[in-house]
Every structure is written in structure tokens, then in C-alpha cells.
Specification:
With 228 residues, this protein is mostly helical. 66% of the residues lie in helices and 2% in strands. The radius of gyration is 19 Å and the shape is globular.
């Protein structure tokens, strides 16, 4: 059985602590310098606003107080355990690769989500064409948040500690990670396929989860003692 460790704020592992500080500091900076959000958020590569650094910087920006609080709670809850388990260097590499992978998959998904947007928009504004709405979407697309990297973290947690019981808001009984986290993936899948209209970058979440899952499977392919 893998050792599950949790602790208070003072007991946070190094990388998780640094990531928390950076994310909060950047969020404060966004409030002081609003242009930072536009500069660092991920735009589609055909947009005039796209810059290569956005593939990385987007994962350190957030769209509101609820957004950052939820993401930092996830980082604290799941990231701390992975860093204790793997060590700081491996966890940092994992986190960054998941975030970058989520950004790349997000860019690849824009034509699909843009066409969804265009078809819905033209139904209410027939004076414009689907092509015009599609181009507008690509030029104004913007994604930000640590959620893609954190979905990779959640994928690894569910894979390594599947029987860990988690308490979920509004559900009075604990549920094992191997059930909770795949449920979040299904929600993102349905949202990404067009069954939701919530302005959430579902494909960033799915991309981060996929990258994280692949990495943790490869890392543990010949190390079965890590499972229980």
C-alpha cells in the first residue's frame, strides 16, 4: 500500500509551495496590470495575439477568485501527495509537461470548438456566415488557468492511489479516487463535445489528463510495487 501523507500549510512540499506562491502572486499582478492577462493567456496560433510563450504562461494565470481558489485547492490536495511520493524534481517535470501538453491539445481543439461556436452563433445572427463567426472565434480565442496541468496531477493520483477516499462537496459520504476523478473526465468530455455551454476549456482539461495518464503509466510500467 502506498503511503498517503497529508499536512498543514507549513508542511507543504517545496514545488507545491512555490507553485502556490507563483500562482497567487501572478493573480494579484493580473489585478494590478490587466494587460498581463492578454499577454500571457493562450491564443490560437493564427491570431495576431498569439505568442509562443503563452503555451507555458497560460497555466499561471486565472480568470477570477473562484477559479484560482479551486485550482490551488486541487494543487494542494493532490499535488502534495505526488511530490512526497515522487520527489520534487520528478513532480515539477510532470506538472510542467502536463500543462504544456494541455496547451498544445487546446490549440489543436480550437477548429472543432470554433465550428461549434459558429454554428450556434449563426442560428441567432443569420446576417453573418459560419465562416465569419469561425474566423472571429479563432482571432479572439483565449484560454488560461492551471486546470490542464492539474488534471494531469489528478490522473496520476487516481492511478497511484485509486482507493484513497475523497470527500466531495454536497456528497455526505467519501468516494474513492478511482471513481471521483474519472467522473470529472466524463463531465469534461461531454462539455467538450458540445453538451455544455459553460465557457470552460474542456479540451485543456482532457489534454492534461491524457498526458498525465500516459506519463504515469509509462513511469510505472515495470514498477508494480507502487500500486495497491
Amino acid at each position: 500500500m502506498a503511503n498517503y501523507r497529508s499536512g498543514g500549510i507549513g508542511d507543504l512540499p517545496t514545488v507545491v509551495k512555490i507553485l502556490l506562491i507563483i500562482n497567487v502572486a501572478v493573480f494579484v499582478a493580473q489585478q494590478v496590470v490587466p494587460e498581463l492577462t492578454e499577454w500571457g493567456s493562450l491564443h490560437y496560433w493564427s491570431s495576431a495575439a498569439f505568442r509562443p510563450h503563452q503555451i507555458v504562461t497560460m497555466m499561471f494565470l486565472h480568470g477570477g477568485i473562484t477559479h484560482i481558489i479551486f485550482n490551488m485547492l486541487v494543487l494542494w490536495m493532490f499535488g502534495s501527495q505526488l511530490e512526497y511520493f515522487w520527489g520534487s524534481k520528478r513532480f515539477f517535470n510532470f506538472y510542467m509537461v502536463c500543462g504544456i501538453g494541455a496547451s498544445i491539445i487546446t490549440l489543436l481543439s480550437v477548429p472543432y470548438t470554433g465550428m461549434q461556436y459558429a454554428k450556434a452563433a449563426v442560428a441567432t445572427s443569420p446576417e453573418y456566415t459560419i465562416a465569419q463567426f469561425f474566423e472571429y472565434y479563432k482571432q479572439h480565442y483565449q484560454a488560461l488557468g492551471a486546470s490542464g496541468a492539474l488534471m494531469g496531477v489528478m490522473a496520476a493520483f487516481a492511478y497511484l492511489f485509486p482507493n484513497t477516499e475523497l470527500m466531495i462537496f454536497f456528497i455526505p459520504v467519501p468516494i474513492k479516487a478511482k471513481y471521483v476523478i474519472p467522473a470529472y473526465v466524463l463531465i469534461d468530455l461531454f462539455g467538450g463535445l458540445g453538451y455544455g455551454n459553460d465557457n470552460v476549456a474542456h479540451f485543456a482539461h482532457l489534454g492534461g489528463f491524457l498526458v498525465g495518464f500516459i506519463i504515469v503509466v509509462l513511469w510505472n510500467k515495470t514498477n508494480r510495487k507502487n500500486f495497491y
